């Protein structure tokens, strides 16, 4: 098997070039990779199988995450007037801005990860909902013809 940049594996007939940025994949490529990854998990493989779902397949409860307790950036730095500062004050101001920007980066990264996890949950719930609809449709059409 070939390793993906994200740590998964792909089909041996379509090796993934580790030098290609996954952000550049087409939507269909992303879906194929996602389906391959889901099919290799015990809890998600039934979502893409041809077998109908049963009452035992429940939609998982959502995992609601909150950002970690990280100090908020010092937004008052935006109100400063650098044109009136001395060189020493500007150097201190620059250091404070760097610290503030680092803090803001951590906030953005943590929120991005939370959003990514929420999207993954929605995808799995959507797959299960579609699978349940297929099963119900098959039962309804079987009743009408039978």
- Secondary structure class reads mainly alpha
Shape: elongated
Radius of gyration: 24 Å
Low-pLDDT regions? 1-12
Strand ordering within the main sheet: 1-2
Q: Helical element count?
A: 3
Order of helices and strands: EEHHH
Q: What count of domains describes the coordinates?
A: 2
Q: Give the proportion of residues in helices.
A: 40-55%
pLDDT averaged over residues? 80
Measure the end-to-end span.
46 Å
Protein architecture, described:
The protein is an all-alpha fold and 146 residues long. The chain folds into 2 domains: 1-40, no CATH class; 55-145, no CATH class. The chain contains 3 helices and 2 strands, in the order ββααα. The protein has helices at residues 27-39, 45-48, 87-145; strands at residues 2-3, 9-10. The protein has a two-stranded antiparallel ribbon. A hairpin with a 5-residue loop joins strand 1 and strand 2. The protein is elongated and about 85 Å long. The model is unreliable at 1-12 (pLDDT under 50).
């Amino acid at each position: 098997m070939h390793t993906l940049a994200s740590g998964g594996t792909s089909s041996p007939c379509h090796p993934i070039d580790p030098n290609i940025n996954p952000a550049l994949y087409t939507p269909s490529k992303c879906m194929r990779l996602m389906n391959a990854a889901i099919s290799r998990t015990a809890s998600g493989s039934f979502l893409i199988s041809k077998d109908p779902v049963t009452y035992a397949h429940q939609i998982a409860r959502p995992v609601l995450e909150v950002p970690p307790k990280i100090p908020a950036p010092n937004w008052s730095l935006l109100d400063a007037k650098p044109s009136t500062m001395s060189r020493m004050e500007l150097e201190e101001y620059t250091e404070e801005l760097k610290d503030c920007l680092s803090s803001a980066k951590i906030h953005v990264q943590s929120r991005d990860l939370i959003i990514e996890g929420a999207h993954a949950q929605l995808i799995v719930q959507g797959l299960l909902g579609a699978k349940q609809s297929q099963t119900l449709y098959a039962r309804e059409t079987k009743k009408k013809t039978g």
